[in-house]
Design goal:
Elements lengths: L5 E4 L6 E9 L3 H8 E2 L10 E8 L6 E10 L10 E8 L1 H12 L4 E2 L4 H8 L5 H12 L3 H11 L2 H25 L6 H25 L1 H9 L1 E6 L6 H9 L17 E7 L2 E7 L9 H16 L2 E7 L6 H9 L5 E6 L9 H8 L4 E3 L8 H13 L14 H22 L4 H19 L5 H8 L7
Parallel strand pairs: 1-7, 8-10, 8-11, 11-12, 12-13
Antiparallel strand pairs: 1-2, 2-6, 3-4, 4-5, 5-6, 9-10
Length: 458
């Protein structure tokens, strides 16, 4: 079925040097040619760019001065004819170009529809399409590299190899059952199935072992900053972010909300949440912030507990230690430039095996040590394997877990002496689940749901 021609703005809205309006579909070149004064785009070679002006057909006036790229199928992102109109990067100019294109035969693209067409036209599989969105959302170089490798097909190739191994095993067993040439054909079939399912099971387990790190690289390490009011929580967040995103004052209880900010700590994206001080309060607005803070503690991957070197340890501090005792915490003793009143020995007893870092945030001291402690807590010795295939997508992780369980059911069946044709059902189920990762026989509603999460114009 031939698709219609779609268009959308493919660059962020706002003022800038250049904005791009993209078209894709069978009439993409013709639609642009109707509006373009310059070289005849229908005669232009593929993958060439041309200077000219867009003319409003109704008024005959010049609408914009543009550079137009012509890329002909199938060597394009969507495997359709693609035109990209480069115009001045302003809200008025780019919207004027879009309106002209829409008025002359193209349809406004749905979110992710360009990438969806690349998938539907067989240029990329589903895991590669999802990696496009991961690439756009990457917060660090390492997260970007993981997405690039997935987009390049590293995960796809591995999944395809596992599926092929299962398919060949199923075929061999089927032939042995239908055309038995030996008396021990049943034992041969069982032994082959055992060996191949073990191999695939091992590979799936290896992939799942990367899921925790992959998820953190993709979504960020949920990091809650807690402590009594005015110990330096917002100053810590500002020091990590290197710009003032949180309000810092000398008045206790200033932070009334939960503020999120992403920070690159040695290649690891931290999703920082500066929480309102966890304490009893009669202020209704602040109480809402406190309740949200308690919820954040339950969901955080890392807790940064801030203490004040210039204050004695209080019962509130001890309660905070109790609240986060079983979590991943790093204790930060701030304001080391003040006269010492904090009992560091008691702090170490309460902290146990967790790291303690000393800082003087007003002087920007101790941040390097803190960043090292964070990286060492989660990634020491594990993150530099450049040849690893990381699984970072939640959908992929769930399908791999189901595939692993199906293989274990097959292995258990063989141990119990279940007939090989029954065991094949679980192995076939594994093959199907792995296929869902790369989009083989995946349900159409899932396709629509996945691409709806994309940016408009991508």
């Amino acid at each position: 079925m031939e698709m219609d021609t779609i268009t959308a703005i493919s660059t962020p809205m706002g003022e800038g040097a250049i904005a791009i309006v993209r078209l894709s579909g069978p009439e993409a070149v013709d639609n642009a040619a109707k509006l373009f004064k310059g070289k005849d785009l229908n005669e232009a070679d593929s993958h060439t760019m041309h200077y000219g002006k867009l003319i409003d057909p109704e008024s005959g006036e010049v609408a914009e001065e543009v550079m137009v790229s012509v890329m002909r199928a199938p060597k394009t992102f969507t495997r359709e004819d693609v035109v990209e109109i480069n115009c001045h990067g302003g809200l008025v100019s780019v919207n004027r170009v879009l309106e002209l294109i829409l008025a002359n035969g193209a349809r406004l693209a749905e979110p992710g529809e360009f990438t969806k067409r690349a998938f539907m036209n067989g240029r990329i599989d589903l895991s590669q399409a999802e990696a496009v969105m991961d690439l756009i959302r990457a917060k660090t170089d390492r997260a970007m590299n993981v997405a690039l490798k997935q987009m390049d097909g590293r995960l796809s190739h591995l999944i395809q190899n596992l599926r092929q191994k299962l398919l060949e095993t199923l075929a061999h067993v089927e032939v042995n059952i239908d055309y038995p040439e030996y008396d021990d054909v049943e034992e041969m079939s069982n032994e082959m199935m055992r060996e191949k399912t073990r191999e695939v099971h091992t590979e799936i387990e290896k992939l799942l072992e990367t899921a925790r790190q992959g998820k953190i690289l993709r979504e960020g390490l949920g990091t809650a900053i807690i402590g009594r009011p005015n110990v330096g929580k917002s100053s810590l967040m500002n020091a990590l972010v290197h710009e003032n995103k949180a309000i810092v004052t000398e008045i206790p209880g200033t932070t009334r909300d939960v503020i999120e900010e992403y920070v690159n700590v040695r290649g690891v994206p931290l999703r920082l949440i500066d929480t309102a001080g966890i304490r009893e309060t009669e202020d209704i607005v602040e109480r809402i912030g406190v309740e949200r803070s308690r919820q954040v503690l339950k969901e955080a991957d890392l807790i940064l507990l801030v203490l004040n070197y210039g204050d004695e340890l209080t019962d509130e501090d001890r309660k905070l230690f109790e609240a986060v005792n079983d979590l991943n915490i790093i204790v930060i003793v701030n304001k080391m430039d003040l006269d010492p009143k904090l009992d560091l020995e008691e702090v170490k007893r309460l902290t146990g095996d967790h790291p303690v870092v000393s800082t003087a945030l007003i002087r920007e001291e101790g941040i390097d040590q803190l960043e090292k402690a964070i990286a060492d807590t989660f990634f020491e010795g594990d993150l530099d394997a450049g040849d690893m295939t990381y699984v970072s997508n939640v959908r992929h992780v769930q399908l791999l877990k189901q595939a692993k369980q199906a293989l274990e059911d097959a292995q258990e069946g063989m141990e119990m002496g279940v007939p090989i044709d029954v065991v094949q059902i679980d192995v076939t189920r594994t093959w199907e689940l792995l296929g869902e990762i790369i989009g083989d026989a995946v349900h159409e509603s899932l396709i629509d749901q996945l691409f709806a999460q994309f940016c408009l114009g991508k």
